[in-house]
Design goal:
428 residues; alpha+beta; Beta-Lactamase; Helix Hairpins; 4 domains; 5-stranded mixed beta sheet; 14 strands; ATP binding; nucleotide-binding; transmembrane; phosphoprotein phosphatase activity
């Protein structure tokens, strides 16, 4: 954005008018006094007029007086013009900001500061409300030296948060900091909580992805070494090891495909789909595509659809992936149940109109696992998941696709294990 243009200088006439307006009250009072003398007969009108003109000329040549505006804030503390400017600056900040005196007493706090730290009221000492050694040291050092200090504030109650705190002295150009009894400091809090969480998620993701890839890779390298060495001429061992190697290669391939899929979805997370999708037709297509897995598990996928056509705005390929993942999971983890139930119905929930439910009658999961099931690489039973060729990314992919479609994903497991899992997908 371009800098604002400077105001043009006043012309001589504008300058004179500005000064006369500034002395308007004085001129009015003087004119009233002169008029009084004229009415009493103590002063001739022509002399009075000349005197008033002389006063106007004199005041037009004088500079405007410097007016100091004083007001009272909510705590009945005097606030001069400079402090008003500091308060206006603090209110303009989106982050919590507080103005302190040299003793660390709060003089002013902006609206975000009042929301985040309701106990930091004007008149209270900040370090007695926020009892943090780093904060105490930063305020004391800034007050003593006149130099800004910053540190990272980590709090665990009532929730875990991180903030970058900056304590900056407010210097006056005409005052020495160390001898100024009215010196003030500005304390700002910049939230780092989301950045910390994203960094933690990224670190966990890299660690989990590396682990998931390293395991089959180590297995492949071991079998290759065996085939090149002791089992080089053993046909039976070669056939067995090559089969295991193919399984491990497939596992790596699935994992890489899911990672790429998740990356593509996140890349377009904020771009809302614009295509038109027939949900009834899509669900039938998904069911047909999973018939092989269902027959192998001796299960039947039962679909209940409305008679009329149900059309939603979305990405057909991504919605196919959503319901393929959910129905495939129901087949894999449905235990000894014989059916997986898929139902499409109409609802009215906060702008969401279409509900797809996928219900299995398998062992279900303990309630404490439900909130974490959409986390990347989160597995309730890692060994069982690997045996069933799961990568730990399926529900994470489902969650991100539903979010992109401005929908809602809900997973429910009954209180008693063994009564199945119910997954609901709401779409606008």
């Amino acid at each position: 954005m371009d800098d604002p243009l400077p105001s043009p200088p006043l012309t001589p006439v504008q300058t004179v008018l500005t000064r006369l307006i500034g002395y308007g009250a004085l001129l009015a009072g003087l004119a009233g006094i002169i008029a009084g003398f004229v009415l009493l007969g103590d002063l001739r009108p022509d002399i009075a007029l000349l005197g008033l003109l002389a006063a106007i000329v004199l005041l037009a040549l004088l500079p405007l007086p410097v007016v100091t505006v004083t007001q009272t804030n909510g705590e009945h503390l005097p606030v001069v013009r400079q402090e008003q400017s500091v308060a206006a600056f603090a209110e303009a900040l989106a982050d919590p900001c507080f103005v302190l005196d040299r003793r660390g007493t709060v003089l002013y706090g902006n609206a975000p500061g009042a929301r985040q730290y309701p106990g930091l009221l004007p008149g209270r000492v900040m370090t007695l409300v926020l009892r943090n050694p780093d904060l105490v040291a930063a305020i004391e050092t800034a007050s003593r030296t006149g130099e800004a200090r910053s540190f990272e504030l980590h709090e665990t109650l009532p929730a875990e948060t991180w903030d970058k705190v900056v304590v900056a002295p407010l210097h006056r150009a005409d005052q020495d900091w160390l001898t100024d009894d009215g010196r003030q400091m500005l304390v700002t809090f910049q939230s780092l909580t989301e950045l910390k969480r994203v960094d933690a998620m990224r670190a966990d993701f890299i660690a989990n992805a590396s682990h998931e890839l390293r395991t089959p890779l180590a297995s492949l390298m071991g079998f290759i070494d065996t085939l090149l060495g002791p089992a080089a001429k053993d046909a039976a061992a070669r056939e067995k090891f090559l089969g295991i190697m193919r399984t491990q290669s497939d596992r790596m391939s699935r994992l890489i495909d899911d990672l790429l899929s998740l990356s593509r979805i996140e890349m377009h997370q904020h771009v809302r789909p614009t295509g038109s999708v027939d949900l009834s037709s899509l669900l039938r297509e998904v069911r047909e595509g999973l018939q092989t897995q269902a027959k192998a598990a001796e299960m039947d996928v039962v679909i209940t659809l409305p008679q009329e056509k149900v059309t939603v705005t979305g990405d057909r390929g991504q919605l196919y992936e959503v319901f393929e993942n959910l129905i495939d999971n129901a087949i894999k983890y449905g235990g000894t149940a014989k059916t997986v139930e898929v139902t499409l119905s109409s609802v009215e929930r906060a702008g969401l109109h279409h509900l797809v439910t996928v219900v299995d009658h398998g062992p279900g999961v303990e309630p404490e696992h439900v909130p974490r099931m959409t986390e990347r690489f989160y597995r309730i039973d890692a060994e069982t998941s690997r045996k069933k060729k799961g990568t730990g990314l399926g529900l994470a992919i489902v969650k991100h696709i539903i979010q992109r479609h401005r929908g809602q994903l809900t997973i429910r497991s009954r209180a008693n294990p063994g009564e199945g899992l119910r997954v609901e997908v709401l779409l606008p």
